[in-house]
Amino acid sequence: MADKLREERVQRVIEPILYAEEKPKNILDDDILYVRDLGIISLNDLEISNPIYAEIIPRQLTFSTQKTIHHQSEWYVSDSGTLDISK
Hints:
Layout: H1 2-5, H2 8-18, H3 29-37, E1 41-42, E2 47-48, H4 51-68
Antiparallel strand pairs: 1-2
Helix pairs in contact: 2-3
């Protein structure tokens, strides 16, 4: 699925759904049918077809960005490696 999510025609359909646009613009019928045929969306409601995809797709689309974010975890992780709630 990761390779399909990189396709421009798939992104034109998926991005408005993820952004919760009420009236997506510039989506071709052929693109919608293609993404539906891939099983990513349901045609009736123009939404992600299942909860697993709804969780995986945003993660996949932002994976490279997440990996390049450098942050210091010392301010929220205790010495034992657990989350420091008080901070």
